[in-house]
Write a structure and sequence with these properties.
This protein is mainly alpha-helical. The protein has helices at residues 2-136, 142-153. It has one domain. The radius of gyration is 61 Å and the shape is rod-shaped.
Length: 155
């Protein structure tokens, strides 16, 4: 039995050495790997929560960006309306000035034509009188011809 007892002690010593070597050299990396795996599993468990949180943040940011864009769009539309109103006013003012200019030119032309008609009327009346006298009075008469010539030359 003593051999068996010695063998048992040797086996026990081998087992203790094995566990000591295992504990000092192999257990630390295995424990680290197990802990790392636990952390990864926890992260996967929390991934859904994190994803939902990120989605909510992205949705809020999207809403903010849309609101900012709408404000900017409305501001641009307002500026465009103001510029269009200014251009419209400018065009109306220019058209009004051109209208006044055309009216003034037309008044001047009408006055010139009126004066010209007045002169032509006077001339036409003289010519009509001469034509009537020529028809009524005999043209052979020398006195009448001289009288008509005098009327023609009279201005």
């Amino acid at each position: 039995m003593s051999v068996m007892l010695i063998n048992a002690w040797i086996q026990l010593l081998n087992l203790v050495i094995f566990f000591a070597v295992f504990y000092y050299f192999l257990s630390a990396p295995i424990v680290k790997a197990v802990e790392k795996r636990k952390k990864i599993l926890e992260q996967f468990k929390n991934a859904d929560e994190i994803l939902q949180k990120k989605l909510k943040e992205a949705e809020e940011q999207k809403k903010r960006l849309i609101e900012e864009w709408n404000k900017h769009k409305n501001k641009l539309i307002q500026q465009a309306k103001e510029e269009a109103e200014q251009i419209k006013s400018s065009i109306i003012e220019q058209a009004e000035r051109e209208k006044q200019s055309i009216i003034e030119k037309a008044k001047i032309e009408i006055q010139v034509e009126k004066e010209e008609l007045e002169k032509n009327r006077e001339k036409a009346v003289k010519q009509s009188v001469i034509a009537i006298y020529q028809k009524l009075i005999w043209e052979e008469d020398e006195f009448v011809r001289k009288y008509i010539e005098n009327i023609k030359n009279y201005k």
